[in-house]
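Researcher: Let's continue the batch. This sequence belongs to Heme-degrading domain-containing protein, and it's 160 residues. Same format as the previous ones, please.
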Amino acid sequence: MTTPSLEALLQQEEALILSRFSVDDAWWLGCYLREKGAAGHLPIAIEICLGPTCLFSTLLPGATADNQGWIKRKVALVWRYQRSSYAMAQKFAAKEGSFERYGLDHQTYAAAGGAVPLRVTGVGMVGVVAVSGLPQLDDHLMVLDALSALQDWQKGPAQA
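Model: Same format as before. Here are the structure tokens for Heme-degrading domain-containing protein:
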């Protein structure tokens, strides 16, 4: 699979701005990710936060507390830069040593895909959705797919 460019990643993020984000939306999104993960027998951890409050968190078989640690560090990076952890990983990879030049440490931040900001139209970033346990691009794409599905779900049944 070809790695998307940083510009393409940022465009994808902008296309996934939500009309709203509530506790019900978090539950729907978490269940969607869990069902996809379970159907594929994926050893993933999932976490969804609204502000500092965790609204959904689960480990599927094969995932461990280490995956939760990765999520915590990916989420910290997203809050700091308000961009997906995968987009930031690509940015840091483009210029050797830039992670450290920004004053980041690996115990607090992880520049690896899988955490994406939750943005609401007219509000901005309100939370983060994260997956850990797969190769970083797969984690990232799984979250993007789920956010696209959430946008569709929020629109409700198609009007005839």
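Researcher: Any comment?
Model: Helices lie at 6-15, 23-39, 65-81, 85-94, 98-101, 136-155.
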